[in-house]
Known about the structure:
Blueprint: E1 10-18, H1 23-33, E2 45-55, H2 59-71, E3 76-85, E4 92-99, H3 101-111, E5 128-133, H4 137-146, E6 151-156, E7 158-164, E8 175-181
Antiparallel strand pairs: 1-2, 1-7, 3-4, 3-6, 4-5, 7-8
Amino acid sequence: MASTSADTATTRIGVAIDIPEPWGAQLTRRRAESGDPQAAYTPAHVTLLGPTEVRSAALPAIEKHLEAVATGQQPFTIHLRGTGTFRPVTEVVFVTLAVGISECEMLAAAITASEEIQRDARFPYHPHVTVAQDVPSAALDAAFDDLAEFDARFGVPGFTLFSHDLAGDGEGPWRRRREYPLGSLR
């Protein structure tokens, strides 16, 4: 937590769809091979809400909101195929979504509709799986080429709320806080 006062304490959260095995480990390993230090802390995923600081006291309301979002979306399929890049805007190479884009966009929009989640996005939302970021150009090129033929199709049964301790330098693994099954009533 960034502050000791209950009124001002914050928690960094993120919401993501996990990439199942065997593809999750494969993509995480490839990210590590590129030299991307985030591979050690961040398994392969499709981001629905990037790292966002929220009031710690708001977490119960956020969790309730995420439950409603999950209940309103049916399970769907993601098909990952090939690579893309955000260069020259940002130094990122990713695996692209061929199927599941609109479902991810709808989930991301619904998640950020909470008044407790205030986030100014630097870029428009674009679902993808990062495989190299902020590494030398040669490493970006290699990841782009190595995964150009990547192909995986899997069902998405839900998403995960993650939290990250803001104490110290802010580095370290994200902690799974709660799973949200899609289309489920609790």
